[in-house]
């Protein structure tokens, strides 16, 4: 049986590069999401209200104007890499970026007297001694600029050497801040960080080596070089960039969802708010710090630095707080209504409130509009290393036409 042809002018999924491992990513559900958007979209921009890893921008950004929004700044950078990057004569090759970073790393290694090698970590005791030696850099007084990751994360998610490379590549990237390839450089660095981190792709808490087994697993990541991952992703994306500016009028913002809704008129809103009680700022604070590079305060609890080394005053979403989630949906629906936009809302049967409750709030606010529900069974990626790394859920789309 031949697959059905898409309707004329309907949006279809296009191939796009992936930059970060992301909990709850809709990349494996993109066809389902786009099916819902096609039912609602009648023209104008598609506003991805909680863009996250910006997968929707990557999947449809060459067909329709996209407004990618998320309160986290790393999301804006990835969205810009999908929507606004292009190849100009001033764009550097990966070898140029790496050579400049290599000089910085060499100078900083010499200044720090850093000669740590994991090849000597043959026992659990020796391995943890090396980890402690690197973590001592957290209390070191640096005399050179661009040392944020080396001072904040050495011996935690990354080795000190990996942190030196993160700092150096971030420093080099800043030289290209006003070129269209800038977000590709930063997004490729986020990719390299995700695949060299000793965590699971997020940064909630780093692991300690308490057994020979955990030591061997962490060592696999400690020995990974950051540069090959950065180069592979940058070359992949850079090679596919067009040599002319994007022709669609895209927009990227880093606003609270309610504020963002006050800036749009018409079109279609795609909303994929957090489903559960854990805040995304807990899992992705390190890449938020990479983008802002603002030397933030580190969260303290009970007089001690929290092991996750989270940014102080990180964002707390009302969709993750049981006493606020219903009101958050009311604000969302009211904002879409005032914007005179259509809505495609992703939620699941594992959310903070039930899909039925969401539907009741929607029906009350959109009293004269039809509210339709689409469902699909799905395995949600938790990014854990335990037996529940994937969790069976029923994914739902709430569709509300203009």
Please outline the helices and strands.
Elements: H1 30-40, E1 46-48, H2 55-60, E2 66-69, H3 73-83, H4 94-112, H5 124-135, H6 148-153, H7 160-173, H8 182-196, H9 212-222, H10 226-240, E3 251-253, H11 257-261, E4 268-271, H12 280-283, H13 285-292, E5 300-301, E6 304-305, H14 325-339, E7 342-348, H15 355-365, E8 371-381, E9 390-400
Helix pairs in contact: 3-8, 4-7, 7-8, 8-10, 14-15
**Strand-pairing-aware structural class:** alpha/beta
Unreliable spans are: 1-6, 380-389
What's the CATH H-level superfamily name of the largest domain? Vaccinia Virus protein VP39
CATH class of the largest domain: Alpha Beta
CATH fold-level name of the largest domain: Rossmann fold
Descriptive account of the structure:
The chain has about 400 residues and is α/β, with parallel strands linked by helices. Helix content is about 40%, strand content about 10%. The strands form two sheets. Strands 3-2-1-4-7-9-8 form a seven-stranded mixed β-sheet. Strands 5-6 form a two-stranded antiparallel ribbon. The N terminus is likely disordered.
Short description:
The protein has 402 residues and is α/β, with parallel strands linked by helices.
Name some characteristics of this structure.
Rossmann fold, two-stranded antiparallel ribbon, disordered N terminus, 402 residues, globular, 15 helices, 12% strand, seven-stranded mixed sheet, 2 domains, alpha/beta
């Amino acid at each position: 049986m031949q697959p059905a042809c898409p309707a004329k002018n309907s949006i279809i999924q296009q191939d796009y590069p992936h930059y970060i491992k992301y909990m709850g990513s809709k990349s494996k559900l993109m066809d389902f999401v786009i099916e819902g958007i096609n039912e609602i979209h009648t023209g104008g921009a598609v506003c991805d209200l909680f863009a996250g890893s910006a997968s929707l921008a990557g999947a449809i950004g060459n067909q329709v104007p996209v407004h990618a929004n998320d309160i986290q700044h790393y999301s804006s950078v990835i969205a810009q890499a999908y929507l606004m990057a292009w190849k100009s004569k001033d764009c550097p090759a990966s070898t140029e970026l790496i050579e400049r970073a290599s000089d910085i790393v060499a100078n900083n290694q010499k200044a720090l007297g850093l000669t740590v090698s994991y090849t000597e970590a043959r026992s659990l005791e020796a391995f943890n001694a090396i980890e402690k030696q690197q973590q001592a850099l957290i209390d070191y007084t640096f005399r050179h600029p661009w040392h944020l990751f080396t001072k904040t994360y050495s011996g935690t998610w990354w080795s000190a050497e990996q942190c030196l490379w993160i700092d150096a590549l971030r420093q080099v990237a800043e030289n290209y801040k006003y070129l269209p390839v800038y977000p590709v450089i930063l997004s490729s660095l986020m990719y390299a960080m995700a695949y060299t981190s000793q965590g699971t792709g997020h940064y909630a808490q780093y692991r300690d080596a308490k057994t020979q087994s955990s030591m061997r697993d962490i060592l696999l990541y400690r020995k990974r070089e950051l540069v090959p991952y950065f180069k592979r992703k940058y070359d992949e994306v850079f090679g596919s960039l067009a040599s002319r500016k994007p022709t669609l009028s895209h927009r990227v913002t880093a606003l609270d969802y309610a504020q963002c809704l006050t800036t749009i008129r018409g079109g279609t809103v795609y909303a994929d708010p957090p489903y559960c009680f854990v805040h995304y700022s807990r899992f992705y604070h390190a890449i938020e710090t990479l983008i802002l590079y603002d030397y933030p305060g580190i969260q303290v609890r009970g007089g001690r630095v929290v092991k996750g080394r989270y940014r102080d005053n990180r964002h707390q979403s009302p969709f993750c707080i049981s006493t606020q989630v219903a009101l958050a949906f009311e604000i969302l629906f009211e904002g879409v209504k005032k914007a005179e936009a259509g809505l495609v809302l992703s939620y699941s049967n594992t959310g903070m409130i039930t899909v039925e409750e969401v539907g009741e709030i929607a029906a009350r606010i959109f009293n004269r509009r039809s509210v339709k529900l689409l469902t699909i069974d799905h395995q949600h990626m938790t990014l854990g290393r335990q037996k529940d790394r994937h969790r069976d859920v029923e994914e739902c789309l709430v569709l509300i036409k203009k």
